[in-house]
Amino acid sequence: MASQKTVGVLLFEGFELLDVFGPLEAWGVHAQASGTCTIVMTAEAAGAVKSAQGPRAMADYALADCPPIDVLLVPGGIGTRREVNNTKLLEWLVRRAAAAEIVTSVCTGAALLARAALLDRHRATTNKLSFKWVTEQGSAVEWIKQARWVEDGKFATSSGVSAGIDMTLALIAKLAGVETAEQVAIRMEYEWHRDPQWDPFAKIHGLI
User: Fold this and answer.
1) Which residues contact 9 (CB under 8 A, 6 or more apart)?
2) What three-state secondary structure class fits 203?
3) pLDDT tens string for the chain (208 positions)?
4) Dihedral sign (CA 67, 104, 155, 181)
5) Is 198 exposed, middle or buried (0-12, 13-18, 19+ CB in 10 A)?
6) Is 18 helix (H, G, I), strand (E, B) or coil?
7) Is the dihedral of CA 162, 165, 166, 168 positive or negative?
8) Full DSSP string of 69-105
9) Which of 45, 101, 150, 158 is most buried by its number of CB atoms within 10 A?
10) C-alpha dihedral sign at 169, 122, 73, 56
11) How remote is the C-alpha of 32 from its chain's centroid?
């Protein structure tokens, strides 16, 4: 990674735990080894935010106070069903996506990017179990039914839950080199799926 990056995570009530902490484990391991990135968490209000599974995560900043973000991470979770109608949050996404170097989503987090029109005329993917609902949030998006993750310009969107780890490792490889990403995966004891087209869940959920 050529320069210091700030990875910023958007939290909202009902976020999916692994959507956040899977990618953050990878970014965090990389940060410990290289010292080239920092991680911040933000939500509408600073403080504890309840996940879909119950445990809470701490937002370091309110949206209005969040520092500049280079890599934006938008998780999914049942809370996205509510947040697609949250005008304040969607407007914040538009502003922050414009300033970010990379914008990522995991699972149904793509619905928030799509509703904010950020994915219009871009290729993207999402959780295959929730594919129909997510794709209804953005008719101008080229939705890819079979993909572990999709990169298009500054946007990277992943399939469901654990797919966010594979996407994040691919982004670390792009920013800091494949060997670095491999070392992160080894330290995580994680078997990295490197092929973005590897997606057995598209068939399981009847998309192909």
Assistant:
1) 20, 24, 39, 40, 41, 42, 73, 75
2) helix
3) 447 999 999 999 999 999 999 999 999 999 999 999 999 999 999 999 999 999 999 999 999 999 999 999 999 999 999 999 999 999 999 999 999 999 999 999 999 999 999 999 999 999 999 999 999 999 999 999 999 999 999 999 999 999 999 999 999 999 999 999 999 999 999 999 999 999 999 999 999 9
4) positive
5) middle
6) helix
7) positive
8) -SEEEE--STTHHHHTT-HHHHHHHHHHHHH-SEEEE
9) 158
10) negative
11) 20
Contact assessment for residue 90 and residue 109, using Cβ atoms and an 8 Å cutoff: no
Beta-strand runs (E) in the chain: 5-10, 37-43, 47-50, 56-59, 61-62, 71-74, 102-105, 123-124, 142-143, 149-152, 155-158
Question: How many C-beta atoms surround the C-beta of residue 53 within 10 A?
Answer: 12
Q: Please name the residue that has the structure tokens 């403080």.
A: 47
Residue 40: which region, alpha, beta or left (left: phi > 0; alpha: psi -120 to 50)? beta
117 — alpha (psi -120 to 50), left (phi > 0) or beta? left
Distance of alpha carbon 140 from alpha carbon 122, whole angstroms: 8
**Distance between CA atoms of residues 121 and 28, nearest Å:** 32
Angle between helices 163-176 and 178-188 (to 10 degrees): 140
CA dist 171 and 91 (Å) reads 25
